[in-house]
Specification:
The protein is mainly β. It has a single domain, classed as Sandwich (Jelly Rolls), CATH 2.60.120.10. The protein is 0% helix and 45% strand. A hairpin with a 6-residue loop joins strand 1 and strand 2. The chain is globular and about 50 Å long. It starts with a strand and ends in a 13-residue tail after the last strand.
């Protein structure tokens, strides 16, 4: 993604309608996560997430439990930050959890392809999916 340096403060591109992962527009929202805090597992059944971290640093862990997937039972980790300024696209039916790893509070921007519907997603407790947050990186 493009980062344009300007003297008064950089411009950070997040998403264009021509980018991979763009499936239409539903909404954009921001989440804050404090350093050391872990937000529990969530899976969207229909929504595609497009995550960007413009300030701070966040470790995202994705878990695939789809029985027909070649990645079934596997974890994938990504750390997004101002220094590693990329967009992470998460397809429907993948579990995702995240941890604030930047100093203070980090900001996550999410561009979704559908408007939020509380009945469209599933949640489970952090310990329901066996991932060792203290050692795995």
């Amino acid at each position: 993604m493009r980062r344009i340096s300007v003297p008064a403060g950089d411009v950070l591109h997040a998403m264009k309608c021509s980018d991979p992962g763009y499936n239409g527009f539903g909404e954009v929202y921001f989440s804050l996560v404090k350093q050391g805090a872990i937000k529990g597992w969530k899976r969207h059944r229909k929504v595609t997430l497009n995550l960007v971290v413009p300030n701070g640093a966040v470790r995202f862990v994705i878990y695939d439990d789809r029985s027909d997937s070649t990645a079934c039972g596997k974890f994938v980790e990504h750390v997004l930050s101002a220094e590693n300024y990329i967009r992470l696209t998460i397809a429907p039916m993948l579990w995702m959890s995240f941890e604030g790893v930047g100093a203070g509070e980090s900001i996550i921007m999410d561009v979704t392809d559908q408007v939020h519907d509380q009945h469209e997603s599933d949640r489970c407790a952090l310990d329901a999916i066996k991932f060792n947050w203290s050692t795995e990186r």
